[in-house]
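Standup notes, structure subgroup. Blocker cleared on the aspartyl phosphate input:
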Amino acid sequence: MARVVKFGGSSLANGEQYEKVVNIVLADPERRVVVVSAPGKRFDIDTKVTDLLIQYAKSTPGSSEFFAVQKELISRYQNIADYFKISEKDFQGIADIISNLSSTFSGEDDYRLAYFKAHGEHLNAILMAMVLNQLGHQARFAGPAELGLYVEGQPNAATVLEESYTNLKNFEYSDDEILVVPGFYGMTKDGQMATFARGGSDITGSIVARGLGIKLYENFTDVSAVYVANPHIIEEPVSIKQMTYREMRELSYSGFSVFNDEAIIPAIQGQVTINVKNTNRPTDPGTLIVPEKDFEAEYPITGVTNSDHFSALYLHRYLLNQEVGMTLKLLQIFYKYNISYEHMPSGIDDLTVIFDNRQLNEEMIERLCADIKDALNPDVMQWIDDYTIIMIVGEGMFKKPTIITDAIASLTNNGVPINMINQGASQISTMLGTKRAYGKKAVSLIYQHFFNKNEQEA
Ligand SMILES: Nc1ncnc2c1ncn2[C@@H]1O[C@H](COP(=O)(O)OP(=O)(O)O)[C@@H](O)[C@H]1O
Ligand SMILES: N[C@@H](CC(=O)OP(=O)(O)O)C(=O)O
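Run returned:
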């Protein structure tokens, strides 16, 4: 069965990592389509190529910073090319593209940053095809322009156009060649490069798998599995062997950065199974992300995460719930500021609106609050920035009501106050709100309660 394989920036950070990737690709002839990110961090305090490109785009052309970043960028690709003994002549094309990025850009101003960022993946795919050719394999660069992968919307947070799937379906390639596809960006209909949100190469992998009708998408990263909790919070957490699309989407949206939350959608639409695997330990089975829960879960919940990218607005006024059109007025104000909300748990006299705070700034919040005061005249209105959301996820959770009470008790009995509970109609997640300082402690307590094997056996 043909596969799409995507390699994240950590898997392509230098020559040694690149060699592992090449070995993985060549180990199985079914690995026909290779999606690459831009080179990532080689060590903890290193800078990803995407971040260097952002710095490059923002520096003044001709300034010393501009030339310093340009040099650093060329050397990131040069080191990989040298590792594989790519000739100077062949590499020169990549160096020239980097040097000339500022002058080759001819689109609308809004797209300039996206143009720079997209080149991280673009050049890495050109280099990967070169390396595979140099090693005697038939490989070809296939970028969004060639594939017909079209996008629309914001230049740095684009969304795929449906016609891309027809274009991909009609894309011709032969059985004996490897396609190397740059992740993270697509083309607008007027020929400009636009990127997905950060971490968006995962999205390209899903789009390409759905479009080409490929049913297995291997997503190679630097961990051996999707763990039940963030490994930066819990040391050596339990691995998830299998999970559903819905579980992964809930968890990635709220903090599991290992797989981009938007990338699940094309996989759902194309019924593509995702296998998250480790480039450094490719024989480990990894985590399978599948359409339906037709497997036995090992633990009562699938995962727990916390996320600080939410803020809340609390409104209180007696008889708030009886006022016809109150929510409409509120939503009209959000619409005016082009703000979407995530959740809106309510009581009889109060309402909490939870926002993704990455779309807000201080000035917007001030104007928004002033408009709400005018329109709704609340007794209490509080903007809460010091907020973290704890998300507990599992398809089986709601069959056993004690799971939620146990989770809450494990927090409140250990000094973590909860100021919001939201249980979605989806019946697979419960969201708890608390102060940021408690975020990691809350994840640890819930982890200890549900996954700590010693405790469970006791
Ligand atoms: N629940 C989780 N399971 C596994 N990894 C996680 C989880 N939550 C956060 N991560 C982090 O995600 C990282 C992998 O994602 P990312 O850095 O985007 O990789 P890549 O460079 O391969 O795209 C891991 O190194 C890990 O630190
Ligand atoms: N290089 C882009 C896109 C991406 O998906 O990268 P990675 O696979 O390294 O997370 C970024 O840094 O956002």
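Discussed briefly. The mean pLDDT is 94.
Next: hand off to the docking folks.
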